[in-house]
């Protein structure tokens, strides 16, 4: 009987999807991971939006005007965009 060497490669766990293709095991369900990524990109959009506005104009914006700039109508997208925008103002 041959034992594996100490330098044996360890492969990540693989699961089969319903279509027969393989995917890497993850603690988050696939849909949740995709949603988290999408929301992070929306937050980045808010951050970027704050950075393209002149600093003199940013000083004059109130909460209502920031809400008008927000392109998203519903949560959680609306909240994440606002979080990105306001965190850019704080930096």
Short description:
The protein is mainly alpha-helical and 91 residues long. It has 4 helices and 2 strands; from the N terminus they run E-E-H-H-H-H. The termini are far apart.
Ordered list of secondary-structure elements with their pairings:
Elements: E1 14-16, E2 22-24, H1 30-51, H2 55-58, H3 63-69, H4 77-90
Antiparallel strand pairs: 1-2
Helix pairs in contact: 1-4
End-to-end separation in angstroms reads 62 Å
**Helical fraction:** 40-55%
Write out the strand line-up for the largest beta sheet, numbering strands in chain order: 1-2
Low-confidence stretches: 5-15
Q: How many helices in DSSP terms?
A: 4
SSE run: EEHHHH
Tell the overall outline.
elongated
Describe this structure in words.
- It is a single chain.
- With 91 residues, the chain is mainly α.
- It has a domain at 29-90.
- Helices cover 52% and strands 7% of the residues.
- It is built from 4 helices and 2 strands.
- It has helices at residues 30-51, 55-58, 63-69, 77-90, and strands spanning 14-16, 22-24.
- A hairpin with a 5-residue loop joins strand 1 and strand 2.
- Helix 1 packs across helix 4.
- The longest helix has 22 residues, at 30-51.
């Amino acid at each position: 009987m041959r034992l594996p060497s100490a330098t044996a490669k360890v492969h990540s766990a693989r699961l089969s999807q319903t279509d027969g293709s393989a995917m890497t095991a993850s603690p988050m369900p696939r849909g949740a991971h995709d949603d988290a990524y999408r929301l992070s990109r929306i937050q980045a959009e808010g951050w970027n939006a704050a950075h393209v506005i002149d600093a003199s104009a940013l000083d004059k914006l109130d909460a209502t005007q920031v809400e008008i700039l927000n392109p998203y109508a519903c949560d959680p997208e609306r909240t994440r965009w606002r979080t990105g925008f306001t965190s850019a103002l704080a930096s």
